[in-house]
User: Which sequence fits this backbone?
């Protein structure tokens, strides 16, 4: 990605072996991550995986049961939230209804002087321009749409010029259209300020769309941390492969391996429920005969023209999605998902290229 953050940029914030337990529950389990200056870093995962708790540990609303939180290399584990230079945006906007939009933004300054050489009024104007709400200062929050209200709360969080912006599911109360618009706006604001951002969502599509890097969390810890494209195309585990986007996961037994020393790849033959498939694996990852192997194939890589790796299944359902149709096949008692231009029915044969299969662990 052209706009990815420089991997040599200084570390803005770091969790080092951080855990948080509530009685018997381990909400966050020994998490170590480093977020770089200017990076848009997203925590995504199913309900209860510890996203919000991780964010609250960064903000300082919670104290870790173990581990260290650092901002720019400095230990802030015992520093209260108001002294951490973070701006926080919550799901439910939390605007004051009896204050105007401008007063809500000014409230973000609290008693602090505005950053730069500007008055409070000028700072409020600056921020309203930034979030594309210029001219709205005298409105009441309830006269604004949900997306506009959320932009006011972003402006309020940014008012004192924090080093780090934290957002906890800021779009989940909005409908799909507003969400997509706001997502583009949030990304643009983040880019313009180049502010280090940690974002929490359960929506994997949102995570892929908005982030420089994504941490896919499971049971209190990241299972993979990588740029969106890597998460999508090179998931490391079955959990990540299944959580992010549609995917077809197959598990089988290795029945043959052919190493091509010239191209540096191995072609592995895998038996899945009596059907054999050819799968390309990296040279460093050559499996042994008799081992079990799990691989996945994205729906868009299953095609009707495929010469090899044929899956002969029965169409269970077709969903028209506009640009494509999502087709569910039943094959050997399994669900197989593909995307086609036209709806399909009856018996169909689809296949995939060996290089389009991707091996995952666990
Ligand atoms: P969601 O998407 O549903 O908000 P999440 O990934 O943000 O989930 P957390 O809210 O961080 O998850 O919760 C992680 C786990 O810790 C859950 O099992 C939750 O019930 C538990 N938990 C969180 N906060 C507390 C608390 N204050 N007291 C007790 N248990 C808690």
Assistant:
């Amino acid at each position: 990605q052209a706009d990815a953050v420089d991997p040599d940029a200084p570390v803005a914030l770091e969790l080092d072996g951080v855990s948080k337990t509530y009685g018997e529950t381990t909400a966050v389990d020994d998490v170590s991550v480093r977020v770089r200056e200017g990076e848009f870093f997203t925590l995504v995962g199913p309900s209860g995986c510890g996203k919000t708790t991780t964010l609250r540990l960064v903000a300082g609303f919670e104290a870790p049961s173990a581990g260290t939180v650092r901002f720019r290399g400095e230990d802030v584990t015992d520093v209260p939230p108001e002294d951490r230079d973070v701006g926080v945006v919550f799901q439910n906007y939390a605007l004051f209804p009896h204050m105007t939009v401008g007063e809500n933004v000014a409230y973000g300054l609290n008693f602090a002087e505005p950053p730069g050489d500007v008055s409070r009024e000028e700072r409020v104007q600056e921020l309203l321009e930034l979030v594309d709400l210029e001219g709205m200062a005298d409105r009441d929050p309830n006269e604004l749409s949900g997306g506009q209200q959320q932009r006011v709360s972003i402006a309020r969080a940014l008012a004192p010029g924090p080093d780090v912006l934290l957002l906890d599911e800021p779009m989940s109360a909005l409908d799909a259209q507003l969400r997509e618009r706001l997502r583009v706006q949030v990304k643009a604001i983040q880019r313009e300020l180049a502010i280090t951002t940690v974002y929490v969502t359960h929506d994997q599509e949102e995570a892929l769309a908005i982030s420089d890097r994504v941490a896919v969390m499971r049971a209190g810890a990241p299972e993979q941390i990588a740029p969106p494209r890597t998460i999508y195309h090179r998931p490391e585990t079955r959990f990540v492969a299944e959580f992010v986007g549609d995917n077809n996961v197959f598990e089988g037994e290795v029945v043959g391996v052919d190493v091509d020393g010239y191209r540096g790849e191995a072609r592995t033959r895998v038996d899945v429920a009596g059907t054999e498939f050819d799968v390309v694996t990296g040279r460093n990852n050559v499996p042994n005969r008799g081992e079990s192997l799990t691989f996945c194939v994205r729906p868009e890589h299953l095609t009707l023209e495929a010469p090899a790796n044929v899956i002969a299944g029965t169409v269970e359902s077709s969903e028209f999605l506009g640009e494509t149709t999502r087709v569910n096949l039943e094959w050997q008692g399994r669900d197989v998902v593909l995307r086609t231009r036209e709806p399909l029915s009856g018996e169909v044969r689809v296949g995939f290229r060996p290089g389009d299969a991707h091996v995952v662990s666990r």
